[in-house]
Design goal:
It is an enzyme of class 1 (oxidoreductase). The chain is an alpha/beta fold. The protein folds into 2 domains: about 160 residues, 3-Layer(aba) Sandwich (Rossmann fold); about 70 residues, ProC C-terminal domain-like (ProC C-terminal domain-like fold, Orthogonal Bundle). The chain is about 55% helix and about 15% strand. An 8-stranded mixed beta sheet has the order 3-2-1-4-5-6-7-8, with helices on both faces. Helix 7 packs across helix 12 and helix 8 crosses helix 9. Bound molecules: 1,4-dihydronicotinamide adenine dinucleotide and (2S)-3,4-dihydro-2H-pyrrole-2-carboxylic acid. The site of (2S)-3,4-dihydro-2H-pyrrole-2-carboxylic acid (A1CAB) has 4 residues, from helix 7.
Length: about 280
């Protein structure tokens, strides 16, 4: 049994809670600490969990998952540090925030506190997330294993180095949004081609689901799967030509570079804040 305190009940906090509940984690093992009371009450009702304060919620928690916006992480971590500093129970502090380094988290906690950083995605909500995990300076292998097991209950998990986290964020943290954007664009294009919107939505959404399932099946890779759709002289090859002419690959590379650069900029800003605290 792992007792989890989720600090921040926004989109990613809810995705984690929903995925854990769906995977069979009892509601009594999860508490949520959410600044907006109405939102805390909504989550409590929807997932049969306890909304509470940070001090009470952190007491006895095995995992304290920080799911607030990056700029709110330092203040929240400092408060968590105060709440657990005298506790005999060891809590793993897990940050789900983009661009916040394990070092800046450790700086806000008592010396030697185990910190694990996770980059999840919203597909946790339906138990189909994919997360990357890296450990802080004081986290031992068993801490990483515990967090890995927790995140495996809501999807796939890879262990990476912290230096890889900006790239991870660009690929899988932000990634669901890219597929949603493509799906939206396909629906609009279907409507332009004369389909009713509900029909275009059913077709585009079902196609995304089917293509995802084929990729996840792990047989052929994406290249071969695409070749299989491209009949010689056919419709798909004509569409792919238009995608390539429009610079799709370069656009994807630019977009992911922008995401990774932004993640890096957030970590630099949090490092600068730490340096200001020390000076
Ligand atoms: N939304 C996403 O797809 C992903 C988000 N993340 C990370 O998750 C974190 C949260 O992102 P979202 O859920 O999208 O943001 P959000 O704005 O939906 O949720 C943040 C929540 O934290 C609450 N909050 C703020 N200060 C608080 C405090 N002191 N105590 C308790 N609750 C507090 C807010 O009321 C809000 O409900 C961010 O750091 C983000 O980088 C990571 C991966 C994916
Ligand atoms: O857009 C963001 O900053 C967050 C982090 C990764 C996905 N959503």
């Amino acid at each position: 049994m792992t007792r989890i305190a989720v600090v921040g009940g926004g989109r990613i906090g809810e995705a984690l809670i929903a995925g854990l509940r769906e995977a069979g984690t009892p509601g009594s093992d999860i508490v949520v600490i959410e600044a907006v009371q109405a939102r805390a009450d909504e989550l409590a009702k929807k997932y049969s969990i306890l909304p509470t304060t940070l001090d009470i919620g952190c007491e006895g928690a095995d995992v304290i998952a920080i799911a607030v916006k990056p700029q709110d992480v330092p203040a929240v971590t400092e408060r968590i540090g105060e709440a657990i500093s005298d506790s005999v129970h060891e809590s793993i502090v897990v940050s789900l925030a983009a661009g916040v380094s394990t070092e800046s988290l450790e700086n806000k906690l008592s010396a030697g506190s185990p910190v694990v950083r996770v980059m999840p995605n919203t597909a946790m909500l339906v138990g189909q997330g994919v997360s990357a995990v890296c450990k802080g300076r004081f986290a031992r292998d068993e801490h990483v294993e515990q967090v890995k097991t927790l995140m495996e209950s809501v999807g796939g998990v890879v262990v990476v180095t912290e230096a890889q986290m900006d790239a991870v964020t660009a690929v899988s943290g932000s990634g669901p949004a890219y597929f949603f954007l493509l799906t939206e664009a396909m629906i609009d294009a279907g409507v332009e081609q004369g389909l009713p919107r509900d029909v275009a939505t059913t077709l585009a959404t079902g196609t995304a689901h089917g293509a995802g399932a084929m990729l996840a099946a792990g047989g052929d890779g994406p290249g071969q799967l695409r070749y299989n759709v491209c009949s010689p002289g056919g419709t798909t090859a004509a569409a792919i030509r238009a995608f390539e002419a429009g610079g799709l690959r370069a656009t994807v590379a630019d977009a992911m570079e922008a995401a990774a650069t932004k993640s890096h900029a957030i970590s630099q800003a949090s490092k600068d804040d730490d340096d200001d605290d020390i000076a």
